[in-house]
Amino acid sequence: MEAIAAERKNMGFTVLLGDNFYPKGVPSTTDRQWKTKFEHLYRGPYQLAVPFFVVFGNHDRQGNNAEAQLKYAEDNVGSGRWEIDAPFYSRDFGEVDGRPLVRIVFLDSVLLYNVDTGEKSKQEETTREEQLEFIRTSFLEDEEQPYWQIVASHYPFRSETQHPFSQKRVMRDLLPLLKEAGVDLVISSNDRFQQVLDRPGEPLHVSTNGGGSKLESIEAVETSSEFIKSQNGFAAVSVTSDRILVELYRYDGSLAYSANRLFQEKAREETADIR
Q1: Using an 8 Å Cβ cutoff, are 155 and 178 in contact?
Q2: CA-to-CA distance for 212 and 2, rounded, in angstroms?
Q3: Coil/strand/helix, residue 256
């Protein structure tokens, strides 16, 4: 990641998509895992210069430890790069002709779609409805409509996983809401392989990191509309007013796949002075 950032010299921020502290989160802002799994891990000069925006994974919430990650950001502990405003939140990045270039909604998909227990708690039900309304408000009701709309989530909304544990965490029933809201890209990390799925009328679905040490053995696919590969790695996303470019890298930094989402379809609905 540092090598790619050094080569391009234009990295704006990094997104950590959950299970940030494995296996049971981090119990406090002083736990040594902050150094071994964040501060000393992402310590190249380019990574030290940018914020890291964070979402929760199911392992971050084990033992009710998520509060420590919120506190680490609130108190600006360590290098001050750890950014998470609340369990779910949004940020705008860039500006073109007075409009936000991109809006990212960072979800707490564990409470949005909790399948770890037989029955959802009252907190989970409340948080689910709040997050669904937050998606609507952020993407449908805000007057400052961005060029691009992205969702960052631990659990995916579409996946080709064959693993029963992972299949239960695919939020397919929420796809109509994402389509209604005009979401362009979903980036997630729960799948144990890298994946790009481009389905007509849906967001571009990208599983970024290959799941750490627990790879799922799955048949490889590489076509113009999908890419599936059982490998570790990370993603780089570049955004302009004309397109989103998603690149999947292997763990050694070699390029594995790239996919575009062009603005031309949305441009037909906008006035001529948009560009």
Answers
A1: no
A2: 18
A3: strand
